[in-house]
Amino acid sequence: SDVCNSIGTMSSLQAVIDNPGLYNGVFCIAPNFRELHSAEVALANMSMPVLRFIQKQLREKGQGLFDVLAKPDTVKEILKTPYAVRSAVDDTLVQVLLDPLLLEGASNVVFDMLSYSAGPLPEQQLASFPENKPVWVSYGKQDPWTPPGRVEALITKPPVEKVIGWEGVGHCPHDEAPEKVNPEIFDFLNRLYQGKSEVSLEDSVPFFVDTK
Q: DSSP readout, 10-78?
């Protein structure tokens, strides 16, 4: 099984589509709908050439801007936009996110991600998802980056069994309200492993959540 957040949702869904034998389900947190996708941009015939020019400039000349932004104070301020629970944006979280950004080649990955305007959207991935691979979707109702109506509409896709909306949290509910999110993840794991030993918060080991 896979637990994913934001842009990681599409990577996880695609991983299951490409290698269904390796996974038995996906728990999605605040799925990203790729607002820069050519199918999502208004007046694409006119706006996409401009957008692609900006993306090209970022890839070729954006290192200076990246270096300016990849600072603890700047990252902390940026995170205050998608996080509804401001107290979750602490120095530990900032450092966990910043350390990978300081690795060699990290800026190339970031600019490539911002420049990718093609490929399948989550709705398209779920429409062609392998059978018997349950998907649970969740999101924070105060998330400025995730359209609630579009998330709720995913319940119409065959593999999606459940859509959960949490009050008072934003784009990263697993950071902002783990006391709400973790029990749902364990319920999902128990649903996948029905008939086998039950997974619980009390006897579990820490697990990794694929984020950002």
A: HHHHHHHHH-GGG-S-EEEEEE---TTSTTTSTTHHHHHHHHHHHHHHHHHH-HHHHHHH-SHHHHHHH
DSSP symbol at 210: B
Task: Give 143-173 pLDDT, tens digit per residue.
Answer: 998 999 999 999 999 999 999 999 999 999 9
DSSP secondary structure, 152-171, as one string: HGGGGSTTEEEEEEETT--S
Average pLDDT over the chain reads: 83
DSSP 90: -
Q: Give the separation between CA 170 and CA 150, rounded to whole angstroms.
A: 16
- State the first-to-last Cα distance of the chain, in angstroms, to the nearest integer: 18
> What's the rounded Cα separation, in Å, for the pair 93 and 189?
26
